[in-house]
Amino acid sequence: MADSFRFSPGARRIPQQTSAELKDLGLAVLIELDTGAHERAGELLKKYLDARGDPNLKAPNVQAMSLLHYCSLEGMITQVTQLLRANASLGARDRRGMTALHAATVGQHNDVAELLLLAGVKADTASLTGLTAMHLAAVDGSETIIKMLLDVGANTNVQNYLGWTPLHCAISMDQLDLLPILLKGGAKPDIADKAGRLPFESTTSDASRQRLVEILEPLGISL
Fold first, then answer.
1. Is the distance from CB of 124 to CB of 158 less than 8 angstroms?
2. Are 109 and 128 part of one and the same domain?
3. Is 5 part of a structural domain of the chain?
4. Which among 63, 80, 173, 196 would be 20 to 30 A from 106, CA to CA?
């Protein structure tokens, strides 16, 4: 019985897990995360990490998301904290080339994004299609995350596989209230995409164009 526990002075006793048991436990965590069973996933994750499970475990599916990806996407800040304390890799990517910061941005979880940035995640990492967290925040209108990214020096002019910058994304998705923030943060309105279109040519309607004019005029920018 004593052999089934690890002992260290002042530490609580933690049951040893065989490699097979630990692998099964890790997969159970991923399954619960994938199905959105947050409470159960949190309980299993704590048990998994207490047993010294790999904090960088990835799901054996087409997306290959890591534990940190899942918890960031679902806004599970307690579990994100646990994973970071267990030395989960901030640079881990899924099969789309996205990091946990991308996941937190897609989920619009400001607190998780802030925690990841404070922990040192690279703000400008691009996915396989060239998307940075700034692009995703611009698409979703996530003003708070954009400001966080700018505070750590994120590049507002990265182009994705279409040649779109975050400015293109914001305008094409009618997230026009983001324009003053992006422009003051260094976004360049003269960068054309691969089709030769400038960001301000990405408006989707006459109403959007009129709103664009109203926003840009106080900034001294004319169309």
1. yes
2. no
3. no
4. 196
Quick one: tokens of 223?
């169309």
Residue 158 is part of which domain span?
A: 123-223
Taking the C-alpha atoms of residue 160 and residue 140, their distance in angstroms, rounded to an integer, is: 16
Q: What is the CA radius of gyration of the chain?
A: 21
Q: Is 218 domain-assigned?
A: yes
Question: pLDDT tens across 140-154, in order?
Answer: 999 999 999 999 999
| 5-60 pLDDT tens trace | 232 344 444 455 678 899 999 999 999 999 999 999 999 999 999 999 999 999 99
Residue 4 resides in a domain: no
Q: Does the CA dihedral 47-50-56-57 come out positive or negative?
A: negative
Distance CA 102, CA 74 (A): 12
State both tokens at 150: 């700018």
The backbone torsions φ and ψ at residue 25, rounded to the nearest 5 degrees and listed phi first, read: -65, -45
Q: State how far the Cα of 42 lies from the Cα of 11, in Å rounded to an integer.
A: 22
